[in-house]
Amino acid sequence: MPNTSRQHLAAMVPSVGAPFVIEPRSTPTPGPNEVLIEVKSVAVNPLDYFQRYTGFHIDVFPAIIGSDVGGTIIEVGSSVSLELKPGTRVSAFAPTFLLNGSPNYGAFQERVLVPDHFVTPLPNGRVSFNEASILPMALLTAWTGIVYQLGIPTSTTPYKPSDKQGLLIWSGASSVGTMAVKEDGVTVQLAYHTTGDLQDTLKVLQRVKGNGIAKVASAPALTEESPKTNDIEIGFVAPTSSGPKFDEVIDFVFRVWLKERLERAEFSPSPRVQVIGKGLGSLQLALEE
Ligand SMILES: NC(=O)c1ccc[n+]([C@@H]2O[C@H](COP(=O)([O-])OP(=O)(O)OC[C@H]3O[C@@H](n4cnc5c(N)ncnc54)[C@H](OP(=O)(O)O)[C@@H]3O)[C@@H](O)[C@H]2O)c1
């Protein structure tokens, strides 16, 4: 018998392509380096739609998907730093995708377990739960592309004009793009209203790169049909890695970069939040938007 005194509601994906089923489930207890978060707001990503319909990257059913959380810590593991105590308002990346749909770690439920290095405390009185929920996936994707695919270090050594380095952010108004625009040391010199795909990006890069090296970090998936060129390295942004470098990037993004910028009010969540509805019952509608 499940412990009914510790239950919460969850939107579960019961099998590949099946609609969400909202049911109570046992509330897990955080491990030493984990926090239990009461979920106040979730954001939806294109990935959620894809996972819900195709079972992509899900090993176990029923699965709980969803990556982006704004909420309040209600319980902490024995090794979690004092800064993340019960009552702390946070933005958090729920790592269900990295854990192949593992239900304790999906955002689409009332209480979720999150490892502490994916959690950023929110400054008092600023940044709403809704705003907090739109940050983690987009920020992690932007930084993963920058560090892994483009090879730009997380160190804050600023580039100088004499370095002649340039960053072309394609779709700067998207959730991922708008986070890339906020990276350290980036001065937006030219902005265009553009639409298009990888082919257009390559054409622009070929024009501006001269004899230099150009690399593309593509957030949208690459397929066999995706355009290729000999003179530009194209890589898919894949925050599915693990290991020491990945841990370092995660720690930097959530525990240093975002935390410090929110504290100093140097960072405003973007793009503008669009509220679709209240409660887990709104998730299906949100995915269809
Ligand atoms: N690799 C990864 O780990 C990873 C992680 C996150 C996201 N992604 C991928 O990155 C991409 C962006 O994700 P996101 O969360 O940033 O999405 P988003 O916030 O929904 O932004 C998508 C942007 O594309 C524009 N758009 C949509 N359809 C278009 C069309 N037919 N022509 C021109 N513009 C169009 C939208 O414009 P409007 O607002 O005007 O509609 C919006 O600005 C998606 O392909 C997503 O799957 C990958």
Features:
289 residues, alpha+beta, five-stranded antiparallel beta sheet, two-stranded antiparallel ribbon, 25% helix, binds NADP nicotinamide-adenine-dinucleotide phosphate
Shape: globular
Low-confidence stretches: none
The major beta sheet can be summarized as: 5 strands, antiparallel
What's the total helix number? 7
In round numbers, the mean pLDDT is 89
Order of neighbouring strands in the sheet with most strands? 6-3-4-5-7
Work out the strand percent. Answer: 15-25%
What's the arrangement of secondary structure elements?
Blueprint: E1 7-12, E2 21-26, E3 34-43, H1 46-54, E4 68-76, E5 89-93, E6 111-115, E7 119-121, H2 129-133, H3 136-149, H4 175-180, H5 198-208, E8 214-218, E9 232-236, H6 244-263, H7 283-288
Parallel strand pairs: 8-9
Antiparallel strand pairs: 1-2, 3-4, 3-6, 4-5, 5-7
Helix pairs in contact: 3-6
The protein binds NADP nicotinamide-adenine-dinucleotide phosphate.
Describe this protein's structure.
The protein is α+β, with helices and mostly antiparallel strands and 289 residues long. Helices cover 25% and strands 19% of the residues. The protein has seven helices and nine strands; from the N terminus they run βββαββββααααββαα. The strands form three sheets. The protein has a five-stranded antiparallel β-sheet with strand order 6-3-4-5-7. Strand 1 and strand 2 (21-26) form a beta hairpin. Helix 3 (136-149) crosses helix 6. The chain is globular and about 65 Å long. The chain starts with 6 loop residues before the first strand and ends with a helix. It binds NADP nicotinamide-adenine-dinucleotide phosphate. NADP nicotinamide-adenine-dinucleotide phosphate binds at residues 45-47, 137-138, 141, 171, 173-176, 195, 219-220, 237, 239. NADP nicotinamide-adenine-dinucleotide phosphate binds next to helix 1, helix 3 and helix 4.
